[in-house]
Write a structure and sequence with these properties.
By secondary structure, the chain is an alpha/beta fold. The chain has a single domain, classed as 3-Layer(aba) Sandwich (Glutaredoxin). The chain is built from four helices and five strands; from the N terminus they run H-E-H-E-E-H-E-H-E. The radius of gyration is 13 Å and the shape is globular.
């Protein structure tokens, strides 16, 4: 069922933009304002990442698309998470988030304490 939904979304041109583009500095500001217990780094092309895209973890996790194009990341995120969790997804618009957290491969789940 999820595969069918992903296929439909990939073939569709209409995608709700929920994975907002952020830089590392903007992410730092956001983490100070929100309660986030973990960062989940993913990409649309990463088959292993899909097991970490779970709606039940959306209330405490922030999902960050890295090494990916924003439309592709958005489609993959929406296929697995649905549209109700769009605010929990951000896109690394300039590579600074991946560099800051030293992300070299995917998937990565990084626990946070006190927004750091």
């Amino acid at each position: 069922m999820k595969f069918l939904l992903l296929l439909i979304l990939l073939l569709s041109n209409d995608v709700a933009l929920g994975c907002a583009g952020l830089t590392a500095a903007q992410l730092k500001d956001r983490l100070q304002k929100e309660t986030v217990t973990q960062l989940v780094f993913f990409a649309s092309w990463c088959a292993s990442c899909k097991k970490h895209l779970k709606p039940e973890s959306a209330s405490t996790s922030l999902f960050i698309a890295v090494f990916d194009e924003q439309p592709a990341a958005q489609k993959a995120y929406t296929a697995f998470m649905g549209t109700e969790h769009q605010a929990r997804c951000v896109w690394d618009q300039d590579g600074s988030i991946a560099a800051h957290y030293r992300i070299k491969r995917l998937p990565v789940v990084r626990p946070l304490q006190g927004g750091k």
